[in-house]
Amino acid sequence: MKPIKATRISSIDNIAKQLCDVDSLKNVLHCGECEHPMPSHEALKEIISRLKAIIFPGYFGPSQVHMESISYHITASLDSTYRLLTEQIRRGGCFACADYSKDRRGCEKASADIAMEFMNKLPEIRRLLALDAQAAYEGDPAAVSAGETIFCYPSMLVMTHHRIAHELYKLRVPIIPRMISEMAHSRTGIDIHPGATIGEHFFIDHGTGVVIGETCIIGSNCRLYQGVTLGAFSFDKADDGTLVKGIARHPILEDDVTVYAGASILGRITIGKGAVIGGNVWLTKSVGPGEKIVQSHGSKAKESDMLKGNTEEITCKSKNK
């Protein structure tokens, strides 16, 4: 009988051999040719923390903000954040073998230029988030102030991440936008792809389970409730069976649309201005402006009936028509 120690070593050696097999590693091993390390989750958390303190001074970062010194603090924070972001953009480019990362000296300049282009977007990001906070306050009777929504609401947390990630996405920064989005997803249960275009004055009430796909376009003054999916209905495939990338496959919501809890809106369809989509609707066809769609068979109904919760009664009326 072999000694226990020898048996253990033999077993571990065998496991290691299997795990180092080329076929086993081919889809899981990252061997970047670039010298720079992988993007850092911790560094990105620090960047987001600093950006939140810049966008919402007093709510995040130093607990006391004085107007006479705010310029100094924001300027210093902008500079340090810019340097941190430049490094992560460079790492992200290296990870994805982006065009700007192929020449080392050029990569450093390109990363710095992209980071500065993003920093120039911060005033607009703040404007949009201020409107999102107002939408949350106006859209939730339980909210006591817009400030409460900034400090506490999952909708504001996820939209802060999304507005930041979306600008980086538009600048074609690899992987970093998705990492920023997934930070908010893991904390809130709200999954918004950084590619989704979302207009101003946007609010997600409660939020858990909301999914918004990459090519979604959402207009201004829209509101979603928990469990809403704005997803893809089907996927085009190439001749070799792989999914075709880069096609517009998610819904368009025009201005002033409300989507109630549990609704699934799938495919490149358009929900017209001012439309209301009731809870648990499964929708794969476009909806005209101002229409109200209820649960059973996508029937049209009065918004006043929907708000009273008379879904079952509405369904019966619709069937009898």
Question: Can I get a quick summary?
Answer:
46% of the residues lie in helices and 10% in strands. The protein contains eleven helices and 14 strands.
Provide the structure class.
alpha/beta
- The pLDDT mean sits at 88
Q: How many strands appear in the DSSP assignment?
A: 14
Please report which band the strand proportion falls in: under 5%, 5-15%, 15-25%, 25-35%, 35-45% or over 45%.
5-15%
Low-confidence stretches: 309-321
Largest sheet: 5 strands, parallel
Helix content: 40-55%
Model description:
The chain has 321 residues and is of the alpha/beta class. Helix content is 46%, strand content 10%. A five-stranded parallel sheet has the order 1-4-7-10-13. A five-stranded parallel sheet has the order 3-6-9-12-14. α7 crosses α8 (154-170). The longest helix has 27 residues, at 70-96.
Break the fold down into its secondary structure elements and pairings:
Blueprint: H1 4-19, H2 22-25, H3 41-55, H4 70-96, H5 104-119, H6 122-139, H7 146-152, H8 154-170, H9 176-188, E1 191-192, E2 197-198, E3 203-205, E4 211-212, E5 217-218, E6 223-225, E7 229-231, E8 252-253, E9 258-259, E10 264-266, E11 270-271, E12 276-277, E13 282-283, E14 292-293, H10 303-307, H11 311-320
Parallel strand pairs: 1-4, 2-5, 3-6, 4-7, 5-8, 6-9, 7-10, 8-11, 9-12, 10-13, 12-14
